[in-house]
Amino acid sequence: MKILITGGAGFIGSNVADRMIAEGHEMSIVDDLSTGFEENLPEKAAFYRADISDGNAIKAVFETAQPEVVIHHAAQMDVRRSTQEPVFDATVNIIGSILLLEECVRMKVKKVIYASTGGAVYGETQYLPADENHPINPISQYGISKHTVEHYLYLYGYNYGLKYTILRYPNVYGPRQNPHGEAGVVAIFSERMLDGKSPTIFGDGSQSRDYTFVGDIVEANLLALERGEGGIYNLGTGVETSVQQIFDTLEAILKSGLKPIYAPARLGEIQRICLTNEKAGKELGWQPAHTFSQGLEKTVAFYKEKLSRRL
Ligand SMILES: NC(=O)c1ccc[n+]([C@@H]2O[C@H](COP(=O)([O-])OP(=O)(O)OC[C@H]3O[C@@H](n4cnc5c(N)ncnc54)[C@H](O)[C@@H]3O)[C@@H](O)[C@H]2O)c1
Prior knowledge:
Elements: E1 2-6, H1 11-22, E2 26-31, E3 46-49, H2 55-65, E4 69-72, H3 79-84, H4 86-106, E5 111-117, H5 118-121, H6 141-160, E6 164-169, E7 171-173, H7 184-194, E8 200-202, E9 208-209, E10 211-213, H8 214-224, E11 232-234, E12 241-242, H9 243-254, E13 261-263, H10 278-284, H11 292-310
Parallel strand pairs: 1-2, 1-4, 2-3, 4-5, 5-6, 6-11, 7-10, 8-13
Antiparallel strand pairs: 9-12
Helix pairs in contact: 1-8, 2-4, 4-6, 7-9, 7-11
The structure holds nicotinamide-adenine-dinucleotide.
């Protein structure tokens, strides 16, 4: 299949692209390299450097790439930046997505897979693990902009018959992770501890997230090529992991002897989240395959290798 991945030079998009190429798909990537890296781009992918909020540039990309499927990962994905620069956040995440959807309709794209966020659309949860029917109460501009695109997908499906699947990601960690993303703490702690430096825990370390390994998220994208039409799927492990537990698990792997530094909690961050995976199990056939410590072992191996290249 001819697949266009937006944000394919980034953490999750590049891992998805590698896997799709391994499965024999013809891959194009559009990315402005604002937070992604050229070194993440698979050799076999056609690369277009363009901003998704530039309508003319996107039109040209679609005309050359002629995609059958679009996997949409490009985004302003920094929660804190979204509160500081809400207009920029909305321009990339909402306007950029509308421009893409317009092109999908014009070019008769068969399906769109959208990387949404279960970590930011529900806000402070009323029950855990949160399922797809949990009330939507985002407490960041990022959560609002990511969720808004879900409405547009429904509308474009309703009005123009555009097929889509929405994947609500948990906090995704693993090789190539961006420290500014929703699970950035794993990358930051791994890099600091491998460098012999103590990581900082903001608050008492009890804040929890649903950390899911990127390889499992890649599998969900693969399954969504053929399944889950018109559906919204939470891709959680259903397990909460606290920041303190991240430190403890990393320390069990690294045996660094380091102690964390504790600093005051930061405002605007939710205290707890974890997501169900029952619907994704039933309708996509998806299950997370990695436990947190298995995923962390692979992540640490990646950062060890990265550090050795730097030395
Ligand atoms: N990492 C997580 O834990 C997580 C959780 C939930 C949802 N998501 C979603 O997954 C997607 C990928 O996130 P990631 O963690 O891989 O982040 P990332 O920053 O590594 O990847 C995003 C990519 O999009 C590109 N990009 C940004 N703005 C662009 C623009 N205007 N035009 C073209 N390209 C642009 C960046 O250069 C980057 O390569 C995002 O849509 C994010 O909202 C991530």
